[in-house]
Automatic annotation (TrEMBL):
Any matching Pfam family: BE_C
Stated name of the protein: 1,4-alpha-glucan branching enzyme
Organism from which the protein derives: Clostridium pasteurianum DSM 525 = ATCC 6013
Stretches assigned to the Glycoside hydrolase family 57 N-terminal domain: 11-324
Gene Ontology terms for molecular function: 1,4-alpha-glucan branching enzyme activity
Keyword presence, Nucleotidyltransferase: no
Active-site annotation: 192 (nucleophile), 353 (proton donor)
Chain ranges passing through the membrane: none
PANTHER family membership: 1,4-ALPHA-GLUCAN BRANCHING ENZYME RV3031-RELATED, 1,4-ALPHA-GLUCAN BRANCHING ENZYME TK1436
SUPFAM superfamilies named among the record's database cross-references: Families 57/38 glycoside transferase middle domain (SSF88688), Glycoside hydrolase/deacetylase (SSF88713)
EC assignment: 2.4.1.18
Amino acid sequence: MQKGYKGYVSIVLHSHMPFIRHPEIADSLEERWLFEAMSECYIPLIQVYDGLIRDNINFKITMSITPPLMCMLQDKYLNERYIEYLDKSIELTEKELVRTKEDKELNELAKFYNDRFNNLLKTYKEYDCNLMNAFKKFDKLGYLEVITCSATHALLPLISINPEAVKAQLATGVQSYIDTMGHSPKGIWLPECAYTYSLDAILKEVDIKYFIAESKALLYADPKPLYGTAAPIATPNGICAFGRDMDSSYQVWSDFIGYPGDENYREFYRDIGFELPMEYIKPYINPMGIRLDTGIKYYRITGKTENKQYYNRKRAIEKTKEHAAHFARCRQDQISGLSEHMEVPPMITCPYDTELFGHWWFEGPDFIDAFIRESSKDGYCYGFTTPSEYLINNSKVQCCSPNPSSWGENSDYSVWINGSNQWIYRDLHKCEEIMIRLANTYKTPNDLQSRALNQAAKELMLAEASDWPFIIKNNTTVEYAVKRINTHLDRFTKLYENISKNSIDIKFLREIESLDNIFPNINYKIYET
C-alpha cells in the first residue's frame, strides 16, 4: 500500500456461475451462460489487466471466483466447447461482413465484431485455453487478490439449521481454492453477501480473515461502528467485515442515475439472433431452432424508444472516459471529506457482480480500465488497495457484531425463501441430516463406499446452490432450476440407499461421477459432527 494517500478504493468483483456442465446434452442452452460470461466479462477484464500492466499502471482489484466457476474454467470438455462457440461466432461475423457491405455504418460494426471475436480467441489461446491461468498470473503478480466463496454458492443463513452443512460448504470452498490457486484464501465473498451470527465461528474455523458484507451489516451492527462503511469492523471472533459503499454502488447499479443506462451505450435487448431470418441465423443458435443471443448487437440504448439508432463504438468509449472521470471525482470528494473525521484512512469498498461489466453493461470493462487510468493521474488523494492489504497496514479495527443481512431485495433473505421456493429447504434439510449421519457412521469405509459418500456430498452441495431459488423467484428458467434441484437430490437419495444396503450400483456411480465432476478432492468427512 502506497503512503501519502488520504484513503483507498477497493473494487471487488464477484464472479459466479452455477455448475452448468452438461456433456449429456447436445448444445445445452445453459452452457451459453458460461460462454457469454467468458466472452463479455472474463476475457475483456483479462485484456484490461494485461493492458494496465503493459502500460506500467499500478492497480489493485479483488475478485471472488466461486468454486463452480473455477472448476468450469479449467474443465477440458467445456473449454473445447468454448472454442467451438468462438469459431462459430467468428464464422457468423464473417458472414455479417458480406451481408452488411451496402451499409457503411453497419459494416463498420460488423468489422468491430469480427475483430472482437478474433481477439477473444487470441487471448484465450495465449492462456492455453484456461482462464484460471490468467487469474493465477495476476494474483501472483499482486495486481489481483482472488478470494473464495462457499462450495456451490449456498445461501448459508438458510442452511444454518445444520451447522455441519455450513461448515462443509465453507471448508470445501476453501479447499477447492487451494487446489487451484496453490495457496490459502485470505477472504471470502459470502453468497449474496448473506451474513448471520452463527457464521462468525465457522469462518474462524476455516481460517478466513475477512468477508464482504452488505452496507446494513455494518450500519446496523452492535455497537454502531464509528465510521459506518468507510472502515472495516471485526466480529467477536476477529473476522473483519468490509461493508458495501452505497454512493459508489448507486452510480453503477441504479436504474435512474446509473452510468449503464446512458443512451450511447450498447442496447442489451437487440441481438441479431432474434432479428435475422431463421434460415440465415439457424446454424448459430440452438439446433432446436430456439433463438438465442449471438453477442452481435448493432444498436445503442438511444432512449425510451423502439426506434433504436446504430451503436457508435467510438462515442461509447468516449462516454466511458467521461463516466470514469466523474466516478473518480466523486471518490476524491468522498475520501477528502471522510478523512477529515477519521483516525484511519477511509476505505471505499465497491463490490459488484462481475457479470455486470461486459454482459449487462457492454462497456463495463472499458469503464474499469478508464477509472483506473484516470485515478493514476496526479492530483487524486486516493489509491487502490485490497481488503487484506488494508488490514496489514491498518490493524486497529473496531469490534462489532454485524447485523444479519444480504444484498438482496430488502437486505434480507426473502429473495431466496418465499412462497415460490420455500419447498426446497424441507428437502435440503432432510438430506443434510442424512449426510451428517452418514459421515458420523462410516468411519473406515472401503474405496467404493468412500467414492459413493464423496459423490453424495457433491450432489447435496449442488442442490444447495442459491441460484436455483433465485431463478424460481424471478420466474426465468424455472423448469431448469427445479429439475436441477430434484436431479441432485434424487442422485443423493439413490446413493444413500445404495450405501445403506451395502449394494452400490457401480455403473450409476461412475456415470454421475463423470457428469458432476466438481470437487475431485472432496472428503465427505467434513460433514462429521
